[in-house]
Amino acid sequence: MIPIAAEPFEFPLDPAHAALIIIDMQRDFLEPGGFGAALGNDVTLVQAIVPTVRALLDAARARGLMIIHTRECHRPDLSDCPPAKRDRGDPSLRIGDPGPMGRILIAGEPGAEIVPELAALPGEHVIDKPGKGAFHATSLGDMLVERGITQLIFAGVTTEVCVQTTMREANDRGYECLLAEDATASYFPEFRRATLDMIRAQGAIVGWTAPTALIAAALAHKT
Ligand code: C5J
Fold first, then answer.
1. Which residue has the CA at smallest separation from atom 2 of ligand 1?
2. What is the value of pTM for the model shown?
3. Which atom in ligand 1 lies closest to the alpha carbon of residue 24?
4. What letters, b where the CB count within 10 A reaches 16 and e where it falls short, cover 41-52?
Protein backbone atom coordinates (compact mmCIF):
# COMPACT_ATOMS: atom_id res chain seq x y z
CA MET A 1 0.00 0.00 0.00
CA ILE A 2 1.21 3.50 -0.81
CA PRO A 3 -0.21 6.14 1.55
CA ILE A 4 -1.60 9.30 -0.06
CA ALA A 5 -2.10 12.34 2.17
CA ALA A 6 -5.73 12.67 1.12
CA GLU A 7 -8.72 14.29 2.82
CA PRO A 8 -10.25 13.50 5.26
CA PHE A 9 -7.48 10.99 6.06
CA GLU A 10 -4.80 8.90 4.38
CA PHE A 11 -5.80 6.89 1.30
CA PRO A 12 -4.04 3.51 1.13
CA LEU A 13 -3.33 3.22 -2.61
CA ASP A 14 -3.06 -0.35 -3.87
CA PRO A 15 -1.93 0.12 -7.48
CA ALA A 16 -2.40 -3.56 -8.37
CA HIS A 17 -6.12 -3.23 -7.67
CA ALA A 18 -6.73 0.40 -8.68
CA ALA A 19 -8.22 1.83 -11.87
CA LEU A 20 -8.43 5.38 -13.19
CA ILE A 21 -11.86 6.45 -14.41
CA ILE A 22 -12.08 9.67 -16.39
CA ILE A 23 -15.64 10.91 -16.65
CA ASP A 24 -17.07 12.54 -19.80
CA MET A 25 -14.17 14.72 -20.99
CA GLN A 26 -16.07 15.09 -24.25
CA ARG A 27 -16.24 17.88 -26.81
CA ASP A 28 -19.99 18.21 -26.04
CA PHE A 29 -19.15 19.33 -22.51
CA LEU A 30 -15.88 21.17 -23.14
CA GLU A 31 -16.30 23.01 -26.43
CA PRO A 32 -18.55 25.82 -27.64
CA GLY A 33 -21.54 24.48 -29.57
CA GLY A 34 -21.96 21.36 -27.44
CA PHE A 35 -24.46 20.26 -24.81
CA GLY A 36 -22.81 22.15 -21.94
CA ALA A 37 -22.86 25.41 -23.88
CA ALA A 38 -26.44 24.76 -25.08
CA LEU A 39 -27.47 24.72 -21.42
CA GLY A 40 -26.03 28.22 -21.09
CA ASN A 41 -22.74 27.32 -19.42
CA ASP A 42 -19.25 28.84 -19.72
CA VAL A 43 -17.20 25.93 -21.05
CA THR A 44 -13.83 27.58 -20.34
CA LEU A 45 -14.27 26.57 -16.69
CA VAL A 46 -14.20 22.88 -17.57
CA GLN A 47 -11.64 23.18 -20.39
CA ALA A 48 -9.14 24.45 -17.85
CA ILE A 49 -8.58 21.03 -16.26
CA VAL A 50 -7.46 19.23 -19.44
CA PRO A 51 -3.70 19.51 -18.69
CA THR A 52 -4.22 18.28 -15.11
CA VAL A 53 -6.35 15.34 -16.22
CA ARG A 54 -3.64 14.56 -18.79
CA ALA A 55 -0.97 14.57 -16.06
CA LEU A 56 -3.03 12.10 -14.01
CA LEU A 57 -3.66 9.97 -17.10
CA ASP A 58 0.06 9.91 -17.92
CA ALA A 59 0.89 8.82 -14.36
CA ALA A 60 -1.73 6.05 -14.47
CA ARG A 61 -0.51 4.90 -17.88
CA ALA A 62 3.09 4.82 -16.66
CA ARG A 63 2.02 2.70 -13.67
CA GLY A 64 0.04 0.31 -15.88
CA LEU A 65 -3.33 0.97 -14.23
CA MET A 66 -6.57 -0.12 -15.84
CA ILE A 67 -7.88 3.03 -17.53
CA ILE A 68 -11.54 3.72 -18.23
CA HIS A 69 -12.92 6.70 -20.13
CA THR A 70 -16.65 7.37 -20.08
CA ARG A 71 -18.80 9.27 -22.55
CA GLU A 72 -22.33 10.41 -21.83
CA CYS A 73 -24.20 9.75 -25.07
CA HIS A 74 -27.23 8.07 -26.55
CA ARG A 75 -28.16 5.80 -29.42
CA PRO A 76 -29.05 7.66 -32.65
CA ASP A 77 -32.69 6.55 -32.30
CA LEU A 78 -32.75 7.95 -28.73
CA SER A 79 -34.20 4.66 -27.46
CA ASP A 80 -31.96 4.93 -24.39
CA CYS A 81 -32.82 8.59 -23.69
CA PRO A 82 -35.90 8.95 -21.50
CA PRO A 83 -38.16 11.81 -22.58
CA ALA A 84 -37.82 13.10 -19.01
CA LYS A 85 -34.14 13.73 -19.78
CA ARG A 86 -34.47 15.09 -23.31
CA ASP A 87 -37.46 17.35 -22.70
CA ARG A 88 -36.37 18.94 -19.44
CA GLY A 89 -35.54 22.63 -19.23
CA ASP A 90 -35.05 25.07 -22.05
CA PRO A 91 -31.67 24.42 -23.69
CA SER A 92 -30.88 26.06 -27.04
CA LEU A 93 -30.23 22.53 -28.38
CA ARG A 94 -31.70 19.31 -27.01
CA ILE A 95 -30.14 15.84 -26.97
CA GLY A 96 -30.32 14.53 -30.54
CA ASP A 97 -30.67 17.94 -32.19
CA PRO A 98 -28.14 18.80 -34.92
CA GLY A 99 -25.44 21.20 -33.72
CA PRO A 100 -22.05 22.42 -34.91
CA MET A 101 -20.39 19.17 -33.72
CA GLY A 102 -23.10 16.86 -35.04
CA ARG A 103 -26.15 15.67 -33.14
CA ILE A 104 -25.96 16.62 -29.46
CA LEU A 105 -24.81 13.76 -27.14
CA ILE A 106 -25.27 11.08 -29.79
CA ALA A 107 -22.79 8.18 -30.01
CA GLY A 108 -20.56 8.40 -33.06
CA GLU A 109 -20.99 12.15 -33.55
CA PRO A 110 -17.92 14.44 -33.25
CA GLY A 111 -19.33 16.13 -30.16
CA ALA A 112 -19.55 12.86 -28.25
CA GLU A 113 -15.83 12.19 -28.73
CA ILE A 114 -13.31 12.68 -25.95
CA VAL A 115 -11.15 15.77 -26.49
CA PRO A 116 -8.01 14.86 -28.49
CA GLU A 117 -5.57 15.55 -25.62
CA LEU A 118 -7.23 12.80 -23.55
CA ALA A 119 -8.21 10.32 -26.27
CA ALA A 120 -8.07 6.66 -25.26
CA LEU A 121 -5.07 4.61 -26.30
CA PRO A 122 -5.41 1.01 -27.51
CA GLY A 123 -6.11 -1.24 -24.53
CA GLU A 124 -7.94 1.46 -22.58
CA HIS A 125 -11.67 1.09 -22.05
CA VAL A 126 -14.26 3.52 -23.37
CA ILE A 127 -17.74 3.22 -21.89
CA ASP A 128 -20.72 4.93 -23.47
CA LYS A 129 -23.29 5.64 -20.80
CA PRO A 130 -26.85 6.92 -21.19
CA GLY A 131 -27.08 8.07 -17.59
CA LYS A 132 -25.18 10.36 -15.30
CA GLY A 133 -23.76 7.40 -13.37
CA ALA A 134 -21.33 5.14 -15.25
CA PHE A 135 -22.67 1.93 -13.66
CA HIS A 136 -26.24 2.47 -14.89
CA ALA A 137 -26.99 0.42 -18.06
CA THR A 138 -23.31 -0.31 -18.81
CA SER A 139 -20.85 -3.19 -18.39
CA LEU A 140 -18.60 -1.19 -16.04
CA GLY A 141 -19.45 -3.23 -12.93
CA ASP A 142 -18.66 -6.56 -14.62
CA MET A 143 -15.41 -5.20 -16.11
CA LEU A 144 -14.14 -4.07 -12.70
CA VAL A 145 -15.05 -7.37 -11.02
CA GLU A 146 -13.33 -9.32 -13.79
CA ARG A 147 -10.12 -7.32 -13.27
CA GLY A 148 -10.23 -7.55 -9.47
CA ILE A 149 -10.41 -3.78 -9.07
CA THR A 150 -11.19 -2.52 -5.55
CA GLN A 151 -10.11 1.14 -5.78
CA LEU A 152 -11.18 3.82 -8.25
CA ILE A 153 -9.39 7.10 -8.89
CA PHE A 154 -11.77 9.67 -10.39
CA ALA A 155 -11.31 12.69 -12.66
CA GLY A 156 -13.50 14.50 -15.16
CA VAL A 157 -16.68 16.53 -15.48
CA THR A 158 -18.89 17.66 -14.05
CA THR A 159 -17.99 17.25 -10.41
CA GLU A 160 -21.48 17.45 -8.98
CA VAL A 161 -23.28 15.56 -11.75
CA CYS A 162 -21.63 12.62 -13.52
CA VAL A 163 -18.51 12.42 -11.34
CA GLN A 164 -20.39 12.50 -8.06
CA THR A 165 -23.17 10.19 -9.29
CA THR A 166 -20.63 7.60 -10.42
CA MET A 167 -18.65 7.91 -7.17
CA ARG A 168 -21.80 7.28 -5.17
CA GLU A 169 -22.70 4.29 -7.33
CA ALA A 170 -19.15 2.93 -6.83
CA ASN A 171 -19.18 3.61 -3.10
CA ASP A 172 -22.41 1.66 -2.70
CA ARG A 173 -20.79 -1.24 -4.56
CA GLY A 174 -17.90 -1.32 -2.10
CA TYR A 175 -15.15 0.48 -4.03
CA GLU A 176 -12.71 2.81 -2.31
CA CYS A 177 -13.06 6.04 -4.26
CA LEU A 178 -10.47 8.81 -4.55
CA LEU A 179 -11.30 12.00 -6.45
CA ALA A 180 -8.46 14.08 -7.93
CA GLU A 181 -9.48 17.51 -6.63
CA ASP A 182 -7.90 19.60 -9.36
CA ALA A 183 -8.69 17.16 -12.19
CA THR A 184 -12.42 17.67 -11.86
CA ALA A 185 -14.48 20.74 -12.71
CA SER A 186 -17.96 22.15 -12.84
CA TYR A 187 -19.60 25.02 -14.70
CA PHE A 188 -20.36 26.21 -11.16
CA PRO A 189 -17.18 26.47 -9.05
CA GLU A 190 -19.24 26.55 -5.86
CA PHE A 191 -20.86 23.21 -6.78
CA ARG A 192 -17.38 21.69 -7.28
CA ARG A 193 -16.29 22.92 -3.85
CA ALA A 194 -19.49 21.70 -2.20
CA THR A 195 -19.16 18.29 -3.83
CA LEU A 196 -15.58 17.87 -2.60
CA ASP A 197 -16.79 18.77 0.89
CA MET A 198 -19.75 16.37 0.86
CA ILE A 199 -17.69 13.46 -0.52
CA ARG A 200 -15.14 13.59 2.28
CA ALA A 201 -17.53 14.66 5.07
CA GLN A 202 -18.54 12.36 7.93
CA GLY A 203 -15.36 10.28 7.75
CA ALA A 204 -15.20 9.92 3.93
CA ILE A 205 -18.85 9.00 3.56
CA VAL A 206 -18.48 8.78 -0.23
CA GLY A 207 -14.69 8.73 -0.53
CA TRP A 208 -11.43 10.65 -0.40
CA THR A 209 -10.03 13.65 -2.30
CA ALA A 210 -6.40 14.54 -3.03
CA PRO A 211 -4.48 16.80 -5.40
CA THR A 212 -3.31 15.25 -8.67
CA ALA A 213 0.35 15.84 -7.80
CA LEU A 214 0.08 13.62 -4.72
CA ILE A 215 -1.76 10.89 -6.61
CA ALA A 216 0.78 11.01 -9.45
CA ALA A 217 3.66 10.86 -6.98
CA ALA A 218 2.13 7.81 -5.31
CA LEU A 219 1.64 6.13 -8.68
CA ALA A 220 5.32 6.80 -9.50
CA HIS A 221 6.43 5.38 -6.16
CA LYS A 222 8.42 2.18 -6.50
CA THR A 223 7.09 -0.53 -4.21
C1 C5J B 1 -23.93 16.65 -17.23
C2 C5J B 1 -21.95 15.35 -16.87
N3 C5J B 1 -23.53 17.62 -16.41
N4 C5J B 1 -21.03 14.65 -17.52
N5 C5J B 1 -23.12 15.61 -17.51
O6 C5J B 1 -25.01 16.71 -17.75
O7 C5J B 1 -21.74 15.77 -15.75
1. 162
2. 0.98
3. 4
4. bebebbbebbeb
